[in-house]
Write the structure tokens for this entry.
Amino acid sequence: MSSQNIVLETRKVTKRFGGLTAVSGVNLVIPEKGIISVIGPNGAGKTTFFNCVSGFYQPDEGEIIFSDRNNKHVDLVGFAPDNIVALGISRTYQNIRLFANMTAVENIMVGMHPHLKTTWFEAILRTPRLVKEEKDSITEATRLLQFVGLAGAGDELARNLPYGAQRRLEIARALANKPRLLLLDEPTAGMNNKETAEMTEFIRRLRSELGISIFLIEHDMHVVMGISDYITVLDYGEKIAEGTPEQIQKNPRVIEAYLGRGAAAGLHKKSAAADVVAQ
Amino acid sequence: MPNYIRNGLRSGFVFGIVIIFLILIGFTRVANELLAPLVKGTSQLPMGFILFMALLGLWAGASAAKRSPVLMGMPDTYQKWNAIISGLIAGIIGGAFVGLFIFVLGSIQTKGMDMRVYLAQLSPDAIKMLTLGRVAWAGAFSIWLIFVITGIAGGLLALFSDSFKLGERMSSSWKNMSAGIGDSAIAKTVNQNAVVRYILYGIFIIILLILPSFLGKYWNYTLGTIGIYIIMGLGINIIIGMAGLLNLGYVAFFAVGAYTVGLLTAPAPQGLHWNFWIGLLVAMVMAAFVGWLLGIPVLRLRGDYLAIVTLGFGEMIRVLVRSKALSSIFGGPQGVRDIAGPMIFGQRFTEREYLYLIVAVIIFTVFITIRLQNSHLGRAWGAMREDQTVAQAMGINIFRYKLLAFALGAAIGGLAGVMFASRNQYTGPEDHTLMVSVNVLALVIVGGMGSIPGIILGSFVLKGLPELLRQIEDYRLLVFGGLLVVMMIVKPEGLWPSKRRQLEMSDVDLPPETDALQVLEEQSSDQKLRGES
């Protein structure tokens, strides 16, 4: 792990809402081209942690160090979401949040926003630079649509796409920013087995073909165990375990968090962990 | 209580109250004058008023009968009686309300009291008309009788014209019509065939060029006013329609434009005597600057709060220019006189030439609007309107884009203000009341937000229609109110909505195109996904 370049490193990130500490001192490292997952029971603070990284929440304590496209290290704390996106971190949402009344291509073109250079004045004058930029955007959007397997659906309104296609369109929109790090919030939520398998395969392709690091929240243990390099487990906002999928499966604290103390004590550790994984 | 009786009661009650209200505001007298030419009577009776009541009675009876559900499998006679009884009850109740009211008015009148002390509309003449020139009880009874008879007739009318679903049919045919604008064969040819389209544009422009020469001064002026409202509608459309920011103080930008050009070109109070065209440019920049300046503190607010603050700002500008203390700067309540205009051969523009200028400005504004709409700015604004949080997560600087929308919309508002002030050669605080903002907002909503043809249509309807209906000028706002309510029910997305807005307003998901689905299924099959990698 230390031999690789680090894309993102959080140091003691803490977020409180009134008296509730949603995320408490979480340290995490995402290596280049890594697929890192966060798991944990409901309400463990996974999405809050995501929101801290993507700038929607400002952490109360800690640092979030991101190495941008030029390998310059930036502390993301205090940055607005649009600045963080421009640095090269894109995200998707647990409940799909496409621009429902825009076409698929338009959705992706909105995602390209950080890379557009032309101004409003050029938009009125329609300068050659703008025309070229617009043309390139459409070409790129079409290419991305093809990449996520939605070729031909470009003029379809986002709201009219089938569920699985919407998920992939959301990823395509995130990719339009040419991110270095992609945050996926439960990308297989609500999918059937076939769609889940496709999505897992697709996430692997993102890493292998585009060289993107992926940070993932996921509930489906098949997906998590099959895809992740490292897994971080949160419970009540605290990191209770970290390691490779094999290590996590054997970790007694993880089993306890998922099944409760009594169940964990009463069961043979190994088989219990295997059960958790099988679920 | 059976349904049809209840409907009759309800309809009679509502119509009775509404008619009393119409009498109190004096609308019945206007109706009498409007309808009188239709009924050529030599008698002394106010035939227009009688016709008006009869029509309302028909309406009351029909609406009562319409509400009664048609019972399937019931014999025809049963339905017939249902409808007639509904109409009858509506007539009796509605007539009783109105008759009783007229009786009371007539009785007071005969006792020699002047009701005008309490309500200006209840003059002796008006009351004489209401009682049909007879004694109170006879007049009241006649009105009641008219109402009962027409109520029954209305019930029968509803039954035989099969207008049980009149409202439904009306709204659906309206929908078909508006869908037809986009889908009809003619529209398709126009959309697809560039030559046909340009020929149509050509014809349209020629009509625009020729028309003003045939119109009198009055109509040129009126069309000019409509044009100025179109410009404002297009400007506020950038703020509300594209960026989704509710601005209720748009008149502020209009005022800034008007006053800037006024103060720069007029002999008093500043005495600068600038050239009109330079004044125009400065006014636009000034309005944009004010929009930007206002936006900085205000645009961090969302929705309702933004609306309230902008509303206050609009009034603030008016109060400022009106204030005595600042009259050495802004001219105070008297306003600014002798504002310069564009010159031709050393002469000021006539109304007709102003109309040409305004049309040119409209074309310029439409051009800018379309360019903005179809650029990354239009997309960014659209994204912001749909989901501000996600738009920000796409790298869009929400604040900057809102400011930009405000400034651009303000510049166009300022341009409209320049046109207005220089055409009238005058501007004063009373040109910039809240009603201007309200009218602009209303025309955009009536026409269809985000739709350029909708805005033009809305402007004609809201500013042009009252000119055609000069006779009921006093009731313009009443008619507008009714029109707006009806429109919001029948066609909430506007008269000529933009495609996108139509989608946003409709809550039914459109069925996806089958071809696209097939494409998707092919694409998402395992083989393809893996085969590509």
